[in-house]
Amino acid sequence: MNEQGILPLPPEERPAATGTAGEPSALAAGGVGQQLRAAREERGLSLAEVAQSLKLGQGQVAALENEEWQLLPGNTMIRGFVRNYARLFDLDVEQLMRGLDAARLQQKPQLAASAGTSATLPSPSGRRAERRDYLAVVGGLLLLALAVLVYFFAPLKEWQERLIEMIESRSVAPQVQRAQPAPALPTAADSAPRVAPAESVTSVSPPNATVLAAAASPSAAVAAAGGGDLRLSFAQSAWIEVRDAMGHLVVSGMMPAGSQREVGGQAPFSLVIGNATQVTLHHRGRVIDLAPHSKGDVARLTVE
User: Where is the HTH cro/C1-type domain (predicted)?
Assistant: First the structure.
């Protein structure tokens, strides 16, 4: 009995593999999904029961059996799914891995040929993706150029005035602190001439207020900049991939059940979420429904 509580098939009842040693059989090369489905049906198990044992979505299990690799998240994850499925029914893992590699190699030339025939007529979705990437690169370059222009060509007079204000505010602060002990003197005659310094104290308060307001503005800008962060909660283990506006990979991997993951960076974010029905996505205090963006229990969406 394996870890999932399912008895393995006796050796004499297992499907016999054909073909010579050192190369996958015809069934393994072209029918990895058929082998997995046959093993499940021999045990009388449903897709839902196998999905629960493997901690996967039911759609992902169906995609494995139908060999719809494009619905699954990446070659590494596909190999892990097939390996776990094989171990669940005590199948020959290495044979299935060879069959999977052969099946994937057979699909690649077909994909390349189809890409060559459609090169003259790119699909609308491909054109939109290329245009989005192009606009993101151009926008980043424009922002960089603008920052350089502001840094090098901003009026020197404005910078000098700000520097003078900062120096004056720092020099006024010690004078204010020295003027405060004046009311502690006991005689009324001595306290009377000290009214004028008190007035000078009140007169310098507006520059301090200006400096404090100026100092507070960067922190407010930082808080506003952090408003685009994402938070993902996982009721069950799920695979995620998150990329920022520049296409850089921010997060990729399997997240454990009961965990949370916060993601920051430059919006918009492009997300691919496996086992999407067990994942909750929060953005700026609201929950984003993944159902409209899901296909085969894998959600693909862009969050602004």
Answer: 36-68
Side-chain-side CA neighbours of residue 15 (13 Å): 25
Delimit the domains of the chain by residue range. Answer: 11-116, 227-303
pLDDT per residue as tens digits for the range 85-100: 889 888 899 988 888 8
pLDDT digits (tens, 9 = 90+) for 120-163: 444 555 567 777 888 888 888 988 888 777 666 655 556 556 66
CATH code of the region 227-303 = 2.60.40
Cα dihedral: 56, 82, 53, 277 (round 10): 10
Q: Residue 109 has which token pair? A: 């030339």
